[in-house]
Amino acid sequence: MTTYITIEQVDDLLGGGWAPQDQKPRSVLMANTWLTNLRLPGFEAIPIDVIQAGVEVAKEAAIGNLYQAKETGVLSKSVNADGVSTSKTYSESSRSISAGESFALALLAQYLGTGQVKVVRG
Hints:
- The protein is of the alpha+beta class.
- It has a domain at about 5-70 and about 100-110.
- It has 4 helices and 2 strands, in the order αααββα.
- It has helices spanning about 5-15, 25-35, 50-60, 100-110, and strands at about 75-80, 85-90.
- A hairpin with a 4-residue loop joins β1 (about 75-80) and β2 (about 85-90).
- α3 (about 50-60) packs antiparallel against α4 (about 100-110).
């Protein structure tokens, strides 16, 4: 995992009260994991917009909006013995993206790219 942000950087940008002291290490760990999983390019020095994105995500992690539990599996099941019919409904496991995550993704858009390469033939 790459370390994009530190507790000190988050404290500098948000002030010391962004999370209780005992929650800060885990929140920053979660933010660094989130950023690492985006497969950002390697940086010699972490750009300020990447740091700011990490700060936003750490703040979301501190209030429980990051890596939330997901409900999967069967939501409902029906059986009809006489008509021999059955029905199941499954959850989609979708989740909402928090405002902080959305802002972080906007800050990181220039680094994420589309995976496409422009080909010029001459």
